[in-house]
Write a structure and sequence with these properties.
Number of strands: 8
Strand content: 5-15%
Structural class: alpha+beta
Distance between the termini: 67 Å
Helix content: 25-40%
Number of domains: 2
Largest sheet: 3 strands, antiparallel
């Protein structure tokens, strides 16, 4: 079967309202794939929405659909081999850390990257962070929430800590995995995570490793000393 026929059949078997990139055809010769996608675009079978990103529209009574800009941004990042994970207010809302949803779409990315505007009306924030490729979306969101502790809207730091503690206690999110990924996070994140771990009686070896990663002479002024019982153990004020 020709490459062109293989590409067409694969797209036909896929869903409408679907994005495709060259990575979806990585098992085929890249130049032949590019030529096949170009021909399908000229025939109107697919739409080219960005360099290397194609879209199969769905026809509704209101007309043909267009892809949501955050999906396009995610596809572009994936095509460029950049690890990414949803984070920010939408992720915090999903975890029950806040009831507010921001108009800004935020992605944690594995390295600094410059992405041309996907759509002028869409606010997109790319936030460099560690452990994006290895941590799952919830784990990454918890680490970012602890980093943003004092700036998450429609909640308080103590409420965020209480909710994160519940997520760990219920094993929805693994404290051990988050602690491992926290090694490259700012010291204040490791300190708050350690205080949470102490309050939920986490593995002492994990807590010892977290504490050992902190400078014992450093104090963190987070306004939590009277709201988090274990704060002083971790030099949190």
């Amino acid at each position: 079967m020709s490459v062109a026929r293989t590409v067409l059949n694969r797209i036909k078997k896929g869903d409408e309202d679907c994005l495709w990139t060259y990575r979806d055809f990585a098992d085929l010769p890249s130049l032949a794939v590019a030529a096949a996608l170009s021909r399908l675009t000229k025939k109107g079978c697919i739409r080219r929405v960005r360099n290397g990103v194609y879209y199969v529209p769905r026809v509704t009574r209101f007309g043909t659909t267009t892809p949501a800009p955050p999906r396009v941004a995610a596809a572009v990042l994936t095509r460029r081999g950049i690890a990414w994970s949803p984070t920010g207010h939408a992720a915090y809302n999903r975890l029950g850390l806040t009831t507010q949803v921001s108009p800004t779409t935020t992605f944690a990315v594995g390295r600094k990257v410059r992405l041309a505007s996907v759509e002028p009306s869409i606010r997109l924030l790319l936030r460099p962070a560690a452990a994006v490729r290895s941590a799952n979306a919830d784990e990454r969101a918890v680490l970012d929430a602890l980093r943003d502790l004092r700036w998450i809207p429609d909640t308080t730091p103590e409420n965020v800590i209480a909710r994160v503690s519940d997520l760990f206690r219920s094993n929805r999110i693994s404290f051990a995995r988050v602690a491992r990924f926290a090694r490259r996070e700012p010291p204040r994140v490791r300190a708050v995570l350690g205080a949470i771990g102490s309050s939920i009686v986490a593995d002492p070896n994990i807590l010892e490793e977290l504490k050992g990663s902190l400078n014992p002479m450093t104090h963190f002024s987070l306004g939590l000393s009277d709201k988090l019982a274990t704060a002083r153990e971790w030099n949190i004020r």
